[in-house]
Design a protein that fits this description.
Elements lengths: L4 H12 L4 E4 L1 H7 L8 E4 L3 H7 L3 E4 L4 E5 L5 H4 E6 L1 E2 L13 E2 L3 H6 L9 E6 L6 E2 L6 E2 L3 E7 L4 H7 L1 E2 L5 H7 L2 H13 L2 E2 L1 H10 L8 H12 L4 H10 L3 H4 L1 H4 L14 H14 L4 H9 L4 H4 L12 H15 L4 H12 L12 H11 L4 H13 L9 H16 L14 H8 L5 H16 L6 H12 L3 H16 L3 H10 L3
Parallel strand pairs: 2-5, 12-13
Antiparallel strand pairs: 1-2, 1-8, 3-4, 4-5, 6-7, 8-11, 9-10
Helix pairs in contact: 7-9, 8-10, 8-11, 11-14, 14-15, 14-20, 15-18, 15-20, 17-18, 22-24, 23-25
The structure holds adenosine-5'-triphosphate and magnesium ion (MG).
The site of magnesium ion (MG) has 3 residues, from loops.
Length: 508
């Protein structure tokens, strides 16, 4: 593992001006683990204004006493390097930000305000006179420049915790979590990213202080939660969040699935089924969207459950799950396009496919609803759903057959998305033919034509569609509305207003 020259040059410059300067925090931890650091942080006893003087291409972030130094690097992780002046822990009235930034005199003091022992180490990088390749005895970090690492500063035994694989708060865990409640989430995140255990006292302090999470901005919770979900151990993360009482703080909807039994088709309770589905999706390295859809796809089951025991039913649970998923993701301030995709997957996770019964037209209709760009992920969600139910085979014959069929149908459509856009006639053409003004009738006509074309793509020819428009134009608006409604029912299972009725019934 190499320390980039941009970093070494900054440290060298600070040292030449008689300041102390060290690599610190996550990058030291990752170097010791022989992992590529995500970003590089430098700590120094130089004051922000002194740092700025030395690096004219820099910006001072007052809130954290951090100077951002710009480099010429093309790598995004190296474009701006954070240099932070030694700091003390301030008072945290809001459990989030220290009230005032107080500078510290020593490196040890700075390290003592950091969250976990494995993040509270510094690395002194010095200059060596002769050029050589050096392999450090304890770290196996190789340097191919004149720089070497003389020592690691580790006052809280972070190296031992790295070896023993422990996430342990620096100092008194109660106080650490009370100062900054984001650390509650960070503990779980590091446990998942590194596959470490949380030390007992630290774990207990998280359980006790979990309610403090309410002081943390949803965006910051979202970022840590996303990092947990993106690890290969996402499902363990969910279990840890649950055991530490954090889950009920920010996704109480998931907590409500605990202990909810299903019916004769299911081995597991709803909660176990959901985390097992996520487990599979994360092991397969599926997208964040598929992972979150796997975790949330049956959230509506507790609300829709009717009857008990082997015959319990969950009619319309996917509609309720979709609405609940949208509420959770909106609350956590996920970007709109992610919310739309995840809710779409949840909404259609129960699509029916039987090679002997399902027609090509039905698949074209599914494509209209889901969009061909999302079909692969819908199939992945279905796989995760199956495995998470305890089925041994993820991709059974049916699902493989389905994907094969989809591919064939997309080819037949010459790459065109099955939607109103694929029609060889548009609203303007219809207005010309019928002399109608813009209004609902145009929409009805287009939907009816699309439905016919979905049934039989051969009909997607301008002449035919013109002729058919003239025929349909003889019908009244009311009759067309009826036909449109029928067409919609055919490809939408339930009309939007029926969905709304269901949402109202279950208060979602
Ligand atoms: P990552 O690999 O995600 O970058 P990291 O440990 O480097 O992990 P950063 O958020 O980049 O995390 O923070 C850098 C360092 O700053 C941490 O290693 C830790 O020493 C300190 N730190 C960050 N956030 C906190 C916090 N909330 N409380 C205390 N120390 C923190
Ligand atoms: Mg970092």
């Amino acid at each position: 593992m190499k320390i980039p020259k941009e970093i070494l040059e900054i440290i060298d410059k600070l040292q030449k001006a008689n300041f102390e300067a060290y690599l610190v925090g996550g990058c030291v931890r990752d170097l010791l683990l022989k992992k590529q650091p995500k970003d590089w942080d430098i700590t120094t006893n130089a004051r922000p204004e002194e740092i700025q003087k030395m690096f004219p291409e820099s910006v001072y972030e007052n809130e954290f006493a951090t100077v951002l130094v710009k480099t010429n690097s093309k790598l995004s992780a190296l474009k701006t390097i954070e240099i932070t002046t030694f700091r003390q822990e301030g008072k945290y009235t809001d459990k989030r930000h220290p009230d005032t930034i107080k500078f510290a005199q020593t490196l040890e003091e700075d390290l003592s305000r950091r969250d976990f022992t494995i993040n509270a180490m510094a690395m002194e990088v010095g200059i060596r006179n002769q050029e050589s390749k050096v392999k450090e005895k304890n770290t196996s970090i190789i340097h191919d420049s004149k720089f070497i690492i003389p020592r690691i500063i580790d006052p809280f035994n972070g190296q031992e915790d790295l070896k023993e694989k422990f996430i342990r708060a620096v100092g008194n865990p109660q106080e650490r979590f009370q100062e900054d409640a984001l650390r509650l989430m960070r503990a779980i995140r590091f446990a998942c990213e590194l596959n470490f255990q949380i030390a007992t006292e630290t774990f207990k302090a998280i359980q006790k202080n979990a309610p403090l999470l309410k002081f943390i901005a949803q965006e910051r919770i979202r970022d840590e939660f996303t990092k947990i979900i993106e690890t290969p151990r996402a499902s363990q993360g969910i279990l840890l969040l649950q055991q530490t009482n954090l889950l009920s703080q920010f996704i109480p909807e998931l907590e409500k699935t605990i202990g909810v039994t299903q019916n004769k088709h299911h081995l597991y309770t709803v909660f176990e089924h959901l985390w097992r589905s996520l487990e599979y999706a994360s092991q397969k390295n599926y997208s964040l969207e598929v992972r979150l859809a796997s975790l949330f796809h049956d959230l509506g089951k507790p609300k829709t459950k009717e009857g008990e025991g082997t015959n319990a039913t969950f009619y319309n649970h996917e509609i309720v799950s979709t609405q609940m998923t949208r509420q959770i993701l909106t609350r956590l301030k996920f970007p709109t396009e992610k919310i739309n995709k995840i809710t779409l997957l949840v909404r259609y996770h129960g699509f029916v496919y039987d090679p002997e019964i399902t027609t090509d037209a039905a698949i074209r209709r599914l494509l209209v609803k889901v969009g061909s760009q999302n079909i692969q992920e819908l199939a992945q969600l279905r796989e995760a759903d199956r495995i998470g139910s305890g089925c041994p085979k993820a991709l059974p014959f049916r699902l493989r057959h389905f994907l094969f069929k989809v591919e064939k149908i997309i080819k037949q459509l010459e790459g065109k998305e099955p939607s109103l856009k694929m029609l060889k006639i548009n609203g303007n053409d219809i207005m010309k033919i019928t002399k109608l003004k813009p209004g609902p009738k145009i929409g009805f006509l287009l939907n009816i034509l699309l439905e016919e074309v979905l049934d039989d793509p051969q009909k997607n020819k301008k002449d035919y569609l013109k002729k058919r428009t003239q025929e349909l134009n003889h019908l009244s608006e009311k009759e067309l509305q009826q036909m449109d409604k029928k067409a919609k029912i055919k490809y939408q299972n339930l009309l939007a207003n029926e969905e709304n009725k269901i949402k109202r019934k279950y208060k979602v």
